[in-house]
Amino acid sequence: MLEAVIKSSKGDIHKQKGTAQEQAKKIANQLYPYRKKLLGMTMGNHEKRIYDSVGHDYCKDIAEFLGIPYRAEGILLKISFGDKNNRVEGRPYTYWLYMTHGYGGARTKSAKAVKVERTGTWIHADVYIMSHDHVVNVAPDVYLMPDPRTRKEKDSQGHETGFTIGSVQAHRKMLVKSNAYLKWGGYSEMGGFPPVDLEVPIIRFAGTGKPRVKVEV
Fold first, then answer.
1. Which of 96, 99, 152, 158 is 20 to 30 A distant from 44 in Cα terms?
2. What is the domain partition of the chain in residue ranges?
3. Contacts 24+ apart (CB under 8 A), 30-34
4. How many CB atoms lie within 10 A of CB 105?
5. Cα(79)–Cα(93) distance, rounded to whole angstroms?
6. Tens digits of per-residue pLDDT, 75-103?
């Protein structure tokens, strides 16, 4: 959320607009009118520079000002639509969304995309969102989940064999690398990084035929 350039970090400390505190105040005021649409917040690597230097978490300040959930490392959100009764027509459809800022360096798009794919192997969700690498990437993936419902097995004559039969369900998950807001130039150009697309991924939850999730750019 903040540029938060310090002397020992990347970026031009002489060109950033305002102190980290002034940047935090500005972004908090800009987001305040939209606070009821914000579902959660995590810490980015730029803000972490300040935390590592002096132990102050500006992201936490912004989240508290906006009144939204906050977890620095990452956040798992449960998003439900419906009347909260699964036995009636308006039954809810629930989606799980995990987001974290991201980490480390990578040069190629595939190396950047594999980070969110790796995250999808150790936590269950319908959508995974990761940033940090300044490259938009959207990829669907599927894994199989055991269905707890079973039935008695019958032979060709219709007689029960004494065994029960189960099944697995295909669970679709979307792996999303979110966008950047910085145009090409500065340390990214000097470091040999390519220009990036500034388009924003839009995630749409269908609500019917769950778990259908669509991501557009």
1. 96
2. 1-72, 74-143+174-216
3. 31/62, 31/66, 32/65, 32/66
4. 10
5. 8
6. 999 988 776 655 656 667 788 999 999 99
